[in-house]
From TrEMBL:
Cellular-component GO terms for this entry: ATP-binding cassette (ABC) transporter complex
Organism: Pseudomonas marvdashtae
GN (gene name): hisM
Membrane spanning stretches: 20-47, 59-85, 105-125, 169-190, 202-224
Protein name per the record: Histidine/lysine/arginine/ornithine transport system permease protein HisM
Secretion signal span: none
UniProt record similarity statement: Belongs to the binding-protein-dependent transport system permease family. HisMQ subfamily.
Length: 233
């Protein structure tokens, strides 16, 4: 394994001057998709809980579809299925987006994690203590101020434990990127295996990197929970 790292370390861990390393690509996929998914999930979770009935039903249908189908199938539909449509191929901007494997992987991951995050946040919103809302209304807050100053901060704090598991799931899910020829950790491991036929060492390094990243994420979220949820103790 040491010999593999000496020879292929630049591909796994840092840039070799021509492209990103597998670790950098995996982190980019994780951060970009998780941030997009969270930013979209926040307003959709509010609509799902407090909004118009028909909009809430549409959001529920979206979460049902993306939580009820495998992520790998979703990626295949986005990367291979949509790219085969004449509508996509005849539009320069759409074809530019969907012909790039990186774009398709980020879109698939973001849509998938957004669906799960909506359910996490909506569940937290339903358990918001009634006293918080009544206190805000007693202070004369408008509906907009109630959402921005009370409900959303409270929701994000209390959702941290469950959301940390979702982020780790997204990290593991980035491994499907190699099927779209995106040079993430697993794609680099597959290339190393093809070049050296040292299967255990190549995929063992990949597994170790994923585990270290997961441990780092757990540590970050545990620290955030201690600071932001200290009032619960």
């Amino acid at each position: 394994m040491i010999e593999i790292l000496k020879e292929f370390g630049p591909s796994f861990l840092w840039s070799d001057g021509y492209r990103w390393s597998g670790l950098a690509v995996t982190l980019w996929l994780l951060v970009t998709s998780a941030v997009i998914g969270l930013l979209v999930a926040i307003p959709l979770a509010l609509i799902r809980t407090y909004g118009n009935r028909w909009l809430a039903l549409a959001i529920q249908l979206y979460t049902l579809v993306f939580r009820g189908t495998p992520l790998f199938v979703q990626l295949l539909i986005i990367y291979s299925g949509l790219a085969s449509l004449s509508l996509i191929r005849e539009s320069p901007s759409l074809w530019w987006f969907f012909r790039d494997g990186m774009h398709c992987v980020i879109l698939a991951l973001a849509l998938n994690t957004c669906a799960y995050t909506i359910e996490i946040l909506a569940g937290v919103l339903r358990t918001t203590p009634r006293g918080e809302i009544e206190a805000a209304l007693a202070l004369g807050m408008t509906r907009r101020q109630l959402f921005i100053l009370v409900l959303i901060p409270s929701m994000l704090r209390r959702a941290l434990p469950a959301y940390s598991n979702e982020v780790i799931f997204v990290l593991h899910a980035t491994a499907i990127a190699f099927t779209a020829t995106v040079p993430d950790i697993l794609k680099i491991a597959a290339d190393v295996n093809a070049a050296t036929f040292k299967t255990f060492q190549a995929y063992g390094i990949a597994a170790l990197l994923y585990m270290l990243l997961a441990c780092a994420l757990v540590a970050v979220f545990r620290l955030a929970e201690r600071r932001l949820l200290a009032y619960q103790r």
